[in-house]
Amino acid sequence: MWVLLSLSSSPPPQHTGSTLNIPVFATTQNAARLGPICSELSLPQSAFQADKTAFSMLVPSLRSALESASTSSYQVAIVGIESHICVTQTTLDLLAAGHKVYVLADGVSSCNEGERGVAFARLAREGAIVTTSEGWLYECMGDASIPEFKTIAGLVKETKGSTGEAVQTLCKM
Known about the structure:
Layout: E1 2-7, H1 14-19, E2 24-29, H2 31-34, E3 48-52, H3 60-69, E4 75-81, H4 83-96, E5 100-109, H5 113-126, E6 129-131, H6 133-141, H7 149-158, H8 160-170
Parallel strand pairs: 1-2, 1-4, 2-3, 4-5, 5-6
Helix pairs in contact: 4-5
C-alpha cells in the first residue's frame, strides 16, 4: 500500500494521490506558534491532519490512522520541511518500523540550502529512496496501460514548468 506523508507547508502531489487512490496524511509543527497548513496545498477532504510538537511525524494519532488504513507495511512517499529535522526523523522512524520510504527531493526543502544534500545523503545511506516526484509517480503507476495513466500524464505535463523549476532549485545534491 502506498501512503503519502506531508510535513507542514510542503505541497504534496495531492491531485495524483487522489487519482491513484493514495491516502494523504499531513501534519503541522506546533500550529499554535507556527501556523496552520497553508490553504494553497488544497489537501483532499479525505486527508488525515494532525498537529504535533515532536519532530517525527509518527505521533500516536498518525500511527493509529496508518494502522487503520491497511496493512502493517507501507511504501511511503514523503514531502515536507525541514529536510534535516522533520523529514529525516520521520524517514528514520518509518525505516525502523520496516516501511519502504521514498523522499521526494523536489518536494522537500530547508531554511538552510546546505542541509538538504547532507540529509538526502544520510537518508539514502539509511535505506530511503531519494527520487523526484515525477520518477515516483511513474514508479507508482508501473505501466502506461492503467486507466489512471492519461490523467497522471496530463498532470505531469501541466506542471512540467513548476516541477522543472523545483528540480533545478531543490535537487542539487
